Amino acid sequence: MEKTVGALICLILVFSLVLIPFANADWNMFRADPSHDGVGTGNPVLTPAMLWDYQTNGSVWAAPAIVGGIVYVGSQDGNVYALSATSGVKIWNYNTGNPVGSSPAVVDGVVYITADSPSNVPPSGIPPPQYGYIYALSANNGDKIWNYTTQGWVTSPIVEDGVVYFGSEAGEVYALEAANGSELWKSTTEIKGSAITSTPAVVGGVVYYGSFDGGVYALNATTGDQMWRSFTSGGESSPAVVNGVIYIGSTLHNVYALNAASGTILWNYTTGEDVWSSPAVAEGIVYIGSDDGNVYALNAANGNQLWNFSTGSGTESSPAEDGGVVYISSDNSVYALNAGTGAKLWSFTAGAGTYADSDPVVDGDEVFVGCGNYVYAFGNSIVQSSHSETILLVTTPTGTSVDLELNGNITNAQMSLIHITTNKFNTSETLSFKLAGESGTGFSNITIPKSGVLQDKDGTSVTVLIDNKTAPEQGYTQDANNYYVWYTTHFGTQETALAGYGFGFSIVSIVFTKASSQSLPIEAIYGIVATVTLVTIVAVVLMLIIKGKKGKSSLENRLQDLNAFNSQRLNG
Fold this sequence. Notes:
Layout (H helix, E strand, L loop, with lengths): L1 H18 L28 E8 L9 E3 L2 E5 L4 E6 L5 E6 L9 E3 L2 E7 L14 E8 L5 E8 L6 E3 L2 E5 L4 E6 L5 E6 L12 E3 L2 E5 L4 E6 L5 E6 L8 E3 L2 E5 L4 E6 L5 E6 L9 E3 L2 E5 L4 E6 L5 E6 L9 E3 L2 E6 L2 E6 L5 E6 L11 E3 L2 E6 L2 E7 L10 E5 L8 E4 L10 E5 L8 E6 L5 E8 L13 E4 L2 E2 H4 L1 E3 L3 E8 L4 E6 L9 E6 L7 H26 L4 H20 L1
Antiparallel strand pairs: 1-32, 2-3, 3-4, 4-5, 6-7, 7-8, 8-9, 10-11, 11-12, 12-13, 14-15, 15-16, 16-17, 18-19, 19-20, 20-21, 22-23, 23-24, 24-25, 26-27, 27-28, 28-29, 30-31, 31-32, 33-36, 34-35, 35-43, 36-42, 37-41, 37-43, 38-39, 38-42, 40-41
């Protein structure tokens, strides 16, 4: 009896692990974690679709942090934003009153982020004193918990073991108590006043950073005492510390590898220009950008070049690696590269005059990056069966060309989760398009997320036209997040338009579903079946324990009955 029960319990545990998806690791801070390895743990974005964008009132210079399904990001407009990672809808914002050019660290329900005093030079030509500020905010609502002021602009913060670490352009590294902002210690570079724009890495009780005095430093994380200093050539690059080795770029064109215990230089690789980029290190390969316009992949053991990819422009952003894909920004573009060969998998280019200042970050199955005043989210396209190809024609009233990407096909048998995504389209025109598919009949809907469109001048609903009929004539509803248009489709050519006074599109992701064939998403059905099956198995085990039934044949009969029961539920 005990063996039977034990075996069934093991079966339940294994079954549960198969059915319950693994949680995606968060990107908590600058370069993902205190070691700065720049590596994600989700699935790579191979067939990109823009999920949403969010516009701030200033440039987004630094990479966001993503924790618990929320994107935390700063802007030069002085605000810290919390956005839904799924929709891009703003949850809250906090105005620091100063430009925010750092990446936040989000740990234990608190957002730590730095801001700098403005760099405006008065008519006298004498620049005012520069100050740096660090804030601790509630991750739930943005309420300020504490703040701290320093001399000189400051780096992004790193949080480890209840301590916040950051550097300043005044040549000082700070350690603050994360709970209340009290100063624990402060360390100064050997050449006083040498700027620190390198965000510290913290590994194994040691703080590592680079300085413009040409040194890479190691400090005791508890006391701030200097352990060693190694001369390279300094600069803005932040170190990555992996397997006892420090990898860091320099302003004299080099990438260095140093022994983390002693500071001994193990190797260096020379690029064609300064290296402001901070490295990502994954599977024995160092990925880093250079102002010579290249992304490099170097052997982490000896520094030998494995490949390089030319972006055509200085590459100062820092790469992120996830699932065999390297993401990096350059000029006004974001690139996804094969981590093994450097081949370009895809790229996204923002509007002319826009610069992709932010490092890309990865979380789960999505990539987030700042370009100009925007935060963008990319995910994998959902591709349907290719029974027949859908024709997509796009026009505006003035004949303006609008780029639309259709991922999937509309067929008579299957019409679900088809995404149509536009790039930037910020005019007051109507966007119209035609869909042509198989002949047949069906009752379908269009779901339009409100987060993807601008409202009318008075904030009322957007006008939706299908076959020149308004949405109410077709069947129209809405909730807090979406517009829903229900209509009878004959799978002939249908004219669809979205219009309104002063209406424009930011990023529009339109989902077409065939209600008659999919009343619940497949993920929901899968979860219901999994839950019912798991609960039923538990009930069988309890019945066996109570009734004392031991026979193997009896258990098999019950499992057969259970399978028949579940099959009947699914087919019914």
